[in-house]
Amino acid sequence: MGYYDTKQGIEEYILRSQYWEGPKLVKILKRYIPKQATLLELGMGPGRDFELLQKIYQATGSDKSKKFLELYKKTHKKSNLVKLDAITIKTNKKFDCIYSNRVLHHLTKTELKRSLVRQKEVLNQDGIAFHTFWKGKITEKKRELFFVYYQKEQLKKILKQYFDILELETFSGDEKNDSIYVVLKKIN
């Protein structure tokens, strides 16, 4: 059982993530994706960003944690949710956009590369991927979770192998300039 499949893990995450910049990030995304485009959110957690995304797009929420999906479904019965992990993204559907907010940093660098390959397969032609990462230079394990922090140049080197980079900028999450967001376009 993973950290996000426990009551304590879910409660801690909901509390810790309550001030993350979802509205600001969705505003950036809107510059690249038209209304009603199809969108897959990877790792939706408690659904804060998904709540915003499904008002604008034909959004599908996903998470590896069955508990997070069940919790969201209790109050949002008509939402389109699927259980997926961010590496294999086992779906037959195609999307105009794949979005994640502080999810892919839980993957090893090898797993991140596998995820990026799979994201390209799941995206429609000219599809957009939008992701956020913690900024830093360390790899650590805390609360039973694996974290990889990235510098902009290091992330750019990985991402450009799979996508055109439209934007790669720092922003403030918990602290000033502690995070990086990327807007990527599928290379055809």
Could you explain how this protein is built, in words?
With 188 residues, this protein is an alpha/beta fold. The protein has one domain (3-186): Vaccinia Virus protein VP39 (Rossmann fold). Helices cover 31% and strands 30% of the residues. Helix 3 (48-56) links the parallel strand 1 and strand 2. It is globular, with a radius of gyration of 15 Å.
What is the CATH architecture annotation?
Answer: 3-Layer(aba) Sandwich
Note poorly predicted spans. none
What count of structural domains?
1
Widest β-sheet, arrangement of strands: 3-2-1-4-5-9-8
CATH-defined fold name: Rossmann fold
Compute the CA-based radius of gyration. Answer: 15 Å
Q: Roughly how many Å apart are the termini?
A: 39 Å
What proportion of the residues form beta strands (DSSP E)?
Answer: 25-35%
Instruction: Count the beta strands.
Output: 9
Secondary-structure-derived class: alpha/beta
